[in-house]
Fold each of these.
Amino acid sequence: MTGKWITFEGIGGSGKTTQLNLLYNYLKNHSIEVILTKEPGGTVIGEKLRGILVNDLDIHLEKLSELFLFEADRHETIKKIVEPNVKAGKFVISDRGIDGSIAYQGFGRGLDIEMIHYLTSLATGTKKPDLTILIDVDPEVAQQRIASRSNVDIDKFDLEKLQFQANVRKGFLYMAEQEPKRVLILDGSVSSEELHQKIVNVIKCFSEDLDIL
Ligand code: TYD
């Protein structure tokens, strides 16, 4: 089988992690070799970077330093997880990927989009996901979902105001507009089960190798 790199994107509270886990279990149950990873935090070094970037509320990074650290995490994930596993013919499913920096550091924080594209291309060696599933939800709905969660890690970005989340959403939609063949928008307001079925159908159409599904 040909290996594939699939990323899930969306604002916090979009339901992407739930959907990613459902897809992971589905593929495993159908004997597909699949690796789950995430950005930031998919590698040993990435876990440390995640603490700084996402969880530690006492650390206030400069915008550019924040971007550099996301790109460093990304480079580690590409080199240590994505490239070797895709080469070995496996599916690599990632909770977030390259579009996060355009959405959060670009549309959210206001850094220059072309500069982010350039740094990301250095981090990835210009490799892009084969498919990106963008789960799109209204930021107000997403914030209500986050507020009703219990026992989750603190995420600095989820604590940002509604306007920030709305800008981030625009950033993801911008990427879908720029790269419609790669980034597929799915409505995240439907039930979890309905969305899962849609994602399974997308994966089936996407990979001809998966006729066993
Ligand atoms: P994640 O663990 O997916 O959190 P959640 O599922 O709660 O949204 O991602 C951690 C945070 O990192 C998320 O709030 C968005 C942020 N992020 C960026 O700001 N830039 C990036 O390039 C990436 C990959 C993530």
Note: The mean pLDDT is 95.
Amino acid sequence: MTHPTFPEGFWWGAATSAYQIEGAVDEGGRSPSIWDVYSHTPGKTLGGDTGDVAADHYHRLEEDVALMGWLGLDAYRFSIAWPRLIPDGVGDVNPAGAEFYRRLCRLLREEGIVPVATLYHWDLPQILQEQGGWAASESPEWFARYAEAAHQTLGDLVDVWATINEPWCAAFLGHSAGVHAPGATDPAVAHRVAHRLLVGHHRAAGVIKKRAPEHRVGIVLNLIPAWPAVDDPRDAEAADRVDLIQNRLFLEGALRGGVPDEVSDICRVLGVEEDPGELETHFTPSDYLGVNYYNVNRIAYRRGAPSPAEWPGADEAVLVPPSGPVTAMGWGIDPDGLTWMLRRVSDAYPDLPLFITENGAAFEDRPVGGRIDDQPRVDYLSAHVAAAGEAIEAGVDLRGYFVWSLLDNFEWSYGYSKTFGLFYVDRRTLDRSPKASAYWYRDLIRSGINGGGTC
Ligand code: FCB
């Protein structure tokens, strides 16, 4: 398959996050995070799985960077575990934690792989949760201090930064639906958290830009198209209400420093008192936007239905199961939705470089005679790469594509039951083996359809 549309310097990458791969949760001075507490709470994750061991990346750093080198990655997106870097949440940097991430970045650079660091991929130090977590007024200040420390630690090795991964998940899955840490189920708190995460984003981005104006800083949003289930104006309106909470709240908050009026109305009804001016005060222009894309949500109008827990305020809207083929997550397969979303963002926020910071799929991976022939994943990935190419042809300034994920890992409340990796991880031995998708991705990168690493 050739993709003549990919520009010189386009990055082919892979992504992971700290809690999902590192393990070693009580080694090297790391303190517990909200995900340690949540995953150890009976009934919260499938089979009671936890990230205690995860993919044991903490002990296999060299091996894992070598896998990236074998793939020929241009860039690697990882996250820093806040409780590993600053075990007290706001105190001193933990030298062992700092050294672990410095070693990772040095190894990456030796391989010619650009490190892209995410500051927050959901693992808030538990000690801060005990002081109110993201709902606390001080949370953006804590986050800004952490950003400062992270930049002080890694700023000579990393020049592309993401502040927060998928604030919608952290806010609404974590505080309203209760299916992510810390497991709260209060829509008002969730809206408050969404606001404080956005303020935190601007404050952290501001800190980094002040320290190094030439560094690139952005946020990573999981933008999920909310499309009407059928061609009906009432479904379209319901879908629009979901789109507001899923997408516009975060796009507007991050990229314009504003709160959409409809969100202010919802907050008023819920009794959430947040000063929208705070976003404006701390507004820091983004150098890029990271888009995580997996699927499309199809939404129908249902008279009298309460708003779904994950979209509080989207009344009379229900999620309709996909009608076509699905991945092991039950998510539909809609590469068109990727092109559509990239074009929409690029039209609404022109002159903003975009990266696809996550895209991938879970399928049942069964090793047969030592081989994992994950053709469905290859099909999924190549269709989405093609969809990304279409967006570029349509004029979108897309700079890179990161597969989720480098290797099988702890898939949050699904534990180890869902695997997204290019590399299979044997749960007993933790040995890594390339799946067919890893060979496919390596060939794609080798085919020379980009200039490599000069983006
Ligand atoms: C995203 C998360 C990532 C992973 C994928 C499947 O929402 O950012 O950690 O769980 O989904």
Note: DSSP finds 15 helices and 13 strands in the chain.
